[in-house]
Amino acid sequence: MSARFKLGDRVRVRVGSLPGHFRTPSYIQGKTGTVVAVHGEFRNPESLAYGGDGLPKKFLYLVCFAQSHVWGQYCAPSKDTLFMDLYEHWLEPGQEAGETHARS
Amino acid sequence: MHDHDHTHDAHASIMEENASSNFAKRALAIQSLLIEKGVVTADEVRRAIEVMDSRTPALGAKVVARAWVDPAFKARLLTDAKAACAELGIDTGTLATLVAIENTATVHNVVVCTLCSCYPRAILGLPPDWYKSLNYRSRVVKDPRSILKEFGLELEQDIEIRVYDSTADMRYLVIPVRPPGAEGMSEVALASLVTRDSMIGVTKAQTPGKQRVPSAAEERPG
């Protein structure tokens, strides 16, 4: 398997909820950020949480978000950022048009 | 792969629970069943706790102090933190992946786990209670400047604050900025400036001459 996204790619976090364990906080769902690291492949926690083998492994990315984009009312300087590790199946190609605030 | 031995729901109320909580009772019940069925022995449980308790922020401080005095080591630490720790004889085997992130004159990093309490325990020991509290976890992601101010840290507006929400397999260690006045200090003396909280990112490293006296526990050799 090769990674779907590469450094610098804009990605949007999928919106959704699973009946069980998942590691994509709701506050970041629907937000668009930039891939700043490709960590490699890791076992899927959504399977591991229930005694599964976590396979197939999922690519894991470090994604950087502008705080002013994540929070509509973020009151501090616009250069502040949020970094989060996200699994590939929670990401889709980013759409600049969906952003209300551009990164400074 | 995660160092989780708990459900996430358990953490939401962790500040309010006491030793006789339902969670504690459940853990004890599971432990006694596992021992009874021969899956683990009581000695193995005791040993695991002993190893966990032997981990302290002194380990992380040793790593940071080396990074301050040795640029080549710092470069290796930023590339592969587990291997760099191993160079200093620090076993991070229980950690999935350790990532070091460097504070600079223009960037300040702070770490949180909004989902639960992910923390680089192998080099910092157990996380402080506030790190697991709903208050810290929910507020630091959306208003880091306000919560850092409560910790006594006011950062200039032109410094970029990067909040790391450790949601997966990475455990983040902040390398604080080497404080002014620490130029000629030995590596051991430098390590005494590196506190637990500075490696989480809610404060800076201590300024020479102003550091508190380390407790006996922190002076335990790693």
The number of distinct structural domains of chain B comes to 2
Rounded average pLDDT of chain A: 89
In terms of quaternary structure, the protein is heterodimer
Tell me which protein chains meet in the greatest interface and how many residues each side has.
A-B, 31 and 25 residues
Spans of chain B of 5+ residues with little confidence (pLDDT < 50)? none
What would you call the shape of chain A?
globular
Percent of residues in helices of chain A: under 10%
What is the element string of chain B, with H for helices and E for strands? HHHHHHEEHHHHEEHH
CATH architecture of chain A: Roll
Query: Structural class of the helix and strand makeup of chain B?
Result: alpha/beta
User: What fraction, in percent, of the residue positions of chain B are helical?
Assistant: 40-55%
Under CATH at level 1, the class of the largest domain in chain B stands as Alpha Beta
Shape of chain B: globular
Low-confidence stretches of chain A: 97-104
Number of strands of chain B: 4
Lateral arrangement of strands in the main beta sheet of chain B: 1-4
Radius of gyration of chain A: 14 Å
What's a quick, concise take on this entry?
The complex is a heterodimer of chains A (104) and B (222). Chain A has helices spanning 45-48, 67-70; strands at 10-13, 32-42, 58-66, 81-87, 91-93.
What does this structure look like?
The complex is a heterodimer of chains A (104) and B (222). Chain A is mainly beta. Helix content of chain A is 8%, strand content 33%. Chain A contains 2 helices and 5 strands; from the N terminus they run E-E-H-E-H-E-E. Chain A has a 5-stranded antiparallel sheet with strand order 4-3-2-1-5. The N and C termini of chain A lie far apart (34 Å). With 222 residues, chain B is of the alpha/beta class. Chain B folds into 2 domains: 8-52, no CATH class; 55-219, Nitrile Hydratase, Chain A (Alpha-Beta Complex), CATH 3.90.330. In chain B, the strands form 2 sheets. Chain B has a two-stranded parallel sheet. In chain B, strands 2-3 form a two-stranded parallel sheet. In chain B, helix 4 packs across helix 5 (71-79) and helix 5 packs across helix 6 (81-87). The mean pLDDT of chain B is 88. Strand 4 of chain A pairs parallel with strand 3 (160-165) of chain B.
